[in-house]
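I am still getting used to backbone structure tokens and would like to learn alongside you. Would you supply a protein for us yourself, any chain you care to pick? Start from the sequence, derive the backbone structure tokens from it, and show both lines together. Go ahead whenever you are ready, and we will take it from there.
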Amino acid sequence: MDIKIEVPSHFLCPISMQLMKDPVTISTGITYDRESIEKWLFTCRSTSCPVTKQTLFDTDLTPNHTLRRLIQSWCTVNSIHVFDPVSTPKKPLDKCLIMKLVDEAKRHPHNKIKCLRKIRSIVLASDRGETCMEGSGLFKFLAKVILKENESCFVSKACDEALIVLHHFQCTDLQLRNCKPVLDNKLALLNALLNVMRFGSVQTRSHAITPLRSLFKVMDPTQIAGVKSDIFGEILRIWKCNMSQQTIKASLEILVDIIQWGRNRIKAAESGMVSVLVELLIDILFI
């Protein structure tokens, strides 16, 4: 007869109520399984602690190595085959190294592209990059690069590299709201991203759509209501360029966010996007 083994409550993730494989602690002091809390923070885009309901002012995840060793020992004593093996967590991104590269790029502008490429290599090699945005100054730095490195008819290599990193991070509303350069320059950043959409390569434009979508999430309704008709033309170009489904989905999310304000529905209709949108939706439905 199989004996049911009761898992100690402090070994269970408060979100999934499953045995934690990679326990991490957030700023409120509550420990969760990494996969569950990352989904809560970065996919569901919640800004509060699931247990205490306190607002989170940072999204740092601190590995709880002591608890992980206790869980591993308990699994060994109680027959490991009963549960999924407790995996060793992936090495987290080195926030100190990111901070060092950001500082290097600020102090020595001629090394900016080199530093950005190193940052890109680091973050693309990890699926745990979101937390590195907090406290490292990286997001603030990337926003400033896009603002300063964007000339009228030219997208710089530095801007291109910054957009690749931002595209990978899928920034949350919380990160944007905590970034003063974004809050102080929302319209300027919007114009910079639209400039990328006009003059960038197909790949660069695809990378720009992700931060553009995030930006609209934190803009005031009055600012959204006043957007120029150019944005609808650029969204239309995306649909006509056969870009990835992820890019098209992001562009549709932008459209949904902005057409509800001011005269934006009229601007959208006047851009000629209605017929293209209908064809696009038909294609999506029958894929």
